[in-house]
Structure formats: structure tokens, C-alpha cells
Amino acid sequence: MSDVLESEIASARREVSADTISMSVSELTSLYKEGVLIIRPEFQRLFRWSAEQKSRLVESMMLGIPIPSIFVSQDEGGKWELVDGLQRVSTLLEMQGLLVDASGQPLPALTLTATRYLKGLEGKIWGMDGTQGLSSAQMLDMRLARLDIRVIKRSSDPKAKFDLFQRLNSYGSALTPQEIRTALIAGISGETLTWLHGLTTHPGLVETLALGDRLIDEQFDLELVLRFLMLHQRELKGKRGGLGDFPSKLNDWSIDFAENFPTNSSEYAGVFKSTFDVLSREGSDLLFRKWDTNTRTFRGGFSSTSFEAIAIGIGYHIANGSAYRVDILECAKELWSTLPTTLGTTTGLATGDRFAKTIPLGRALMSA
Q: In what residue span(s) does the GmrSD restriction endonucleases N-terminal domain sit (predicted)?
């Protein structure tokens, strides 16, 4: 038994091969300026620390308090892509007035705020600008402060990298599962992520989803795109449709899709756009809400049940060339009017268990 364990340990270690490097803030900054340290434009949406959180990081470094290691992934060209530490590295760059936005434009230098131990940080900026600027000695201390950099070598397995990123996501403002998934896709294939973001802006999707700003910020629209692509033709097997522990299944599917991109991407895009063109033309922004049979109105926020039954249901028929219904709003009303008898309750069900019910129902409901 111990031999089996030793073998598993050795195998897992090979999956993630990493070096540890001690590096000054000045050296890391130089790598960023030279284009060796890469913060993908797609990651800018994840930079969400407040001014107070940024200032607490600066306070910790000025006081010599250790901060967690920063993880980078080495690409095939030897460059470093940031895996974990986005908030910390971006703060240090923003403090120096060096951080650029997704379009390549420089962001304003960070204005610090008072912290618990360093009240004098209030209003301070990088550069010797009278009483507002940090002193030359304070800036030198920050430039010489050292960071532990863990470099995940390019030979490491992509799925192991993703698992590592999940485990590391505990410092600062936690990311949503989709934001972590986005980071992994970007690390495997930036082209794939750009393609996926293009689908999130397709007019038919935008018009029918009508998501609030919070869900957009958390990339829920991108998660719905991935769900559609993964599930619209999927063969469902077993009691749970083979979708138990769905977040892990979606992670694995996303990794495989990014690794093999652009295989099947044109077919996927065609089905996706055709589906949401039909939905926006024949439905409305009320489509993915719950139909209240008592008041006879669509009410509430976005409903995953409606999306899974109607959008993925139509997608199935478009992909397979079979006839489908176009009286979309009537389908939505029918779904909720018959739900207690056709589906039962989905409240409290794990995502995979809900899919095992909603997807077959949607395929039947949307069949002409």
C-alpha cells in the first residue's frame, strides 16, 4: 500500500513542476516592463481590490510582514503568466504608475489611504511630490522588498495548474469559480478566451439574458456560454446524466476545449448564434424569468431552469437539424405551468441533478 502511495506522490509531483525564486519588487517590475511578466488583458476584470486593501498590502511590505508567494506559469516561450497574485502584483505596479488597462492605456498612480499602523499613508503617492509623495528612502525600501515567486514550469499538466489555482484562491477578494475557470482558459489559450468573450457579446444573448451588473462582473454570462456549448448536444447517461459534481465536469470540458481550440469552434458558434437569434426574435428579455401562473406575468430575476430547458433545448434541435418550436414565450409559460407535474421541484438540487431533469424536459418541450 505504501508503494502505491509513493507512486501517486511521485506522479503528482511530476504534474506540477515548480521552482521558487526570491525577487525584489524592482526586479519583478522590470520583467513586467520588458514584457516577460504577462498579465493577460482578460484578467483586468478580476482586479477588484479596494484602495484600502491595496494600502494594507503596502503597509505589510513597509513593515516587513511576509506576504504569500506569487505563482506564475511559464509559457512555451519562457515568459511568465501570472497565475495567482494578480491583486498583489497589480497593486505594486499601480502604486508606481506602471499598470496599464486592457486597452494598453496607463492607469493613474495609486493614491494610498491610512492604515491601522501607518496613518501617514493617507493621500501618499509614488514619487517625490512635495508632502504628497513618498520619500526617496521609502520608495527604495519598497523597490528592494523581496517577494517569493513560484514558477510553474511549462512541462506541468494544465489540469494540475487549475487545481493549484483553486487552492490558492484564498487571499484577498475571493474569485468566483468562473473567474478561476477564465484564468485557466487564458493560461492555456488566449485565443479561446477571446472567442468565448465574443459569444458573450452576441446581441441575441445580451438581449435575452438581461443580467444585472453584479452577475456580469462575476462572469456569469461567460459561464452560461460554456454551459450551453458543453450541454446542448451532450448524451445524458445514468441517474444524474453523468453530470454529478458539475463544476468539475465543466472545468474539465473547458480545459479540453481550450487545449483543442479551434476544433469544432465554428460549428459551436453557428449553433449558439442561431439559437439566440431565434430566442431574441421570438422571445424577449422576460424569457428567462419565472412565469407566475397566478398573476400571469413573468417575474423575478434570471432563472437557470428556463435557460436550461429553453435555450439548451432549442440548441439541441438546431445542432441535430430537427424541427423546434418558435412560440418561445408560450413555451416558457408552458414550462412553468406544468413544472410541478413534469419536473417537480429543482430548488436545493445540486446543479448536475437539476440538469438531469431540465435538459431532457427542454428537448421534449422545444420539439415541434
A: 26-185
Cα separation, 105 vs 87, in Å, equals 18
Q: Write the CB contacts of 2 (distance below 8 Å, at least 6 apart in sequence).
A: none
pLDDT above 90 (res 344):
no
- How is residue 290 written as a grid cell? 419565472
Give the percent of the chain with pLDDT over 70: 83
* Residue 45 or 259, more confident: 259
Burial of 367 (0-12, 13-18, 19+ CB in 10 A): middle
Partners of residue 70 on adjacent β-strands: 149
Q: Is the pLDDT of residue 34 over 90?
A: yes
CA–CA distances in Å: residue 259 to residues 189, 255, 263, 307: 7, 6, 9, 27
**Number of other CB atoms surrounding residue 173 within 10 Å:** 12
**Residue 286: how many other CB atoms lie within 10 Å:** 16
Sequence-ordered strand ranges (E) for the chain: 18-24, 37-38, 70-74, 80-84, 146-152, 290-292, 297-299
**Within 13 Å, how many C-alpha atoms sit on residue 15's CB side?**
14
In the predicted structure, residue 347 carries a pLDDT above the cut 70:
no
171 neighbors 89 (Cβ within 8 angstroms): no
Mean of pLDDT values over 296-304 = 90
Burial profile 63-73: b = 16 or more Cβ within 10 angstroms, e = fewer: eeeeeebbbbb
Question: Collapsing DSSP states into helix, strand and coil, what is residue 119?
Answer: helix
- 164 and 16 in contact (C-beta within 8 Å)? yes
CA neighbours closer than 13 Å in the CB half-sphere of residue 12: 8
pLDDT tens digits along 265-292: 999 999 999 999 999 998 888 899 998 8
Task: Give the separation between CA 344 and CA 128, rounded to whole angstroms.
Answer: 67
Q: Which residues contact 297 (CB under 8 A, 6 or more apart)?
A: 291
Beta-bridge mates of residue 324: 367
User: So what's the pLDDT on residue 322?
Assistant: 97
Q: Which of 257, 245, 196, 252 is nearest to 222 (CA)?
A: 196
